[in-house]
Each structure stands twice: as C-alpha cells, then as structure tokens.
Amino acid sequence: MSQLPVVLGAGLNTGDIIFQLIAMLILLALLKKFALKPLLGIMKQREDYIGNEISSAEQKHVQAEKLLEEQRVLLKEAREESHTLIENAKKIGEKQKEEIIQAARQESERLKDSARTEIVKEKEQAVAALREQVASLSVLIASKVIERELDEQAQEKLIQEYLKEAGESR
Q1: How many domains in the chain?
Q2: Would the N or C end of the chain have less CB density within 10 A of its end CB?
Q3: Tens of pLDDT along 83-122?
Q4: Is 154 domain-assigned?
C-alpha cells in the first residue's frame, strides 16, 4: 500500500495536464463562439417567435371575444327591431282591418239608403201611373155611361167590367 501513492504520483505529468487543460479551454472557446452563440441565437429567435405567436393568439382571442360580443349586441338589436316591426305590422293590420270594416259599413248604409230612395221613387212613380190609369179609366167609364144612358144596373155592371179590365191590365 505504500507503493500506491508513489505509482500514482509518478504517472502524472503536469505538462500533459496543462496541455489538456489549454486544449479544453480552446475547445470550449471555439464551441462558445461557433456553436453556443448560434445555438443561443436560434433559441432566442425561437423564444421571440413563440412569444409573438402567443401575443398574436391572445390579441386574436381578444378580437374574437370583442367580435362575439358585437355580434351578440347586433343579434339582440335585430331581435328587438324585428319584434318592434312585427308589433307595428300587427297594429297597422288591425287599424286597416277596422278601416276596411268601417268603410264597408258606410258603403252598406249608403247602398241601403240609395235602395230605399229608389224604392220610394219607384213607388211614387207606380202610384202616379196608377192614378193616371184610374183617371183615364174613370173618364172612359164616364164617357161610356153618358153615351149609353143606361139604367142603374147596366151602369153598375159596366163599371165593374172596366174595373176588372183595369185590374187585369196591371
């Protein structure tokens, strides 16, 4: 066991250690310059890209929420407007219905009044025509009676015949 430390100490060369240490430092410097800086740059770019994408996604999410809210408001307004339009249309329809009914009633009354007036006029014309016929028949009967100078029974018979004849001619 006493020989072990001597063997270890004898095998170590300080020049080799320093050379390996310098080579390692040069290798680390080269790796840092040519590999680590570009790798860190790429990682930084990737980090910036991901950050921008997250920021963009958040902005788009905010915009989408804003648009969704605007659409909800517009939909609510459209529903209210359509409800108002429907109510107005119902009111206008009811008003027009009442106006049409009122106009029909007025027209009906006008037609009734016109028909009554026409009936009265035709009745008066018929009565006037009947009076003319009665008058002409009376004159005719009187002239016939005078012409014949009949007795009372013959006159009565003649009047009845003419009245019967006048009734049939109507």
Answers
A1: 1
A2: N
A3: 999 999 999 999 999 999 999 999 999 999 999 999 999 9
A4: yes
